[in-house]
Design brief:
The protein is mainly alpha-helical. It has one domain. Helices cover about 60% and strands about 10% of the residues. It contains four helices and two strands. It has a two-stranded antiparallel sheet. A hairpin with a 5-residue loop joins strand 1 and strand 2. Helix 2 packs antiparallel against helix 3. The longest helix is centred in the middle third of the chain and has 30 residues. The N and C termini lie far apart (about 40 Å).
């Protein structure tokens, strides 16, 4: 997967599919209610649901300990594709989150810093 372009993430929505050349696709200047936005929402939901099913299948296959090398290879290919899709959804949704109201560290950050070895 070609990495998303930060400037385009700021200007629009990273869509859950790529161009025929494998490049990221974006929806620019949308309020999130149009046809393409709704289609992207549906595809993202399907990708996330598919990932959940694949995780269940992977767990079942690995628990049996009777897999063949071909089954493990296919599982790895499917998991890699699913992870790519889920990452794209996360990047797209993360880019659409509002900026934090403030940049001051919260209590957990301060506690982590205080316990970090020097």
């Amino acid at each position: 997967m070609t990495e998303p372009i930060p400037q385009l993430l700021d200007a629009g929505r990273l869509l859950p599919w790529t161009s025929p050349e494998g490049k990221p696709c974006y929806l620019l200047a949308s309020d999130g209610t149009g046809y393409v936005s709704r289609m992207a929402d549906r595809i993202e939901a399907e990708q996330l649901a598919s990932a959940a099913v694949l995780l269940e299948e992977a767990g079942q296959l690995l628990r049996t300990r009777t897999w063949t090398p071909g089954e493990i290879h296919l599982l790895a290919v499917d998991l890699a594709m699913s992870l790519t899709n889920v990452r794209r959804v996360a990047v797209s949704r993360g880019a659409r989150l509002p900026a934090p109201a403030h940049e001051t560290p919260d209590r957990e950050d301060r506690e982590r810093e205080a316990t970090r070895p020097t």
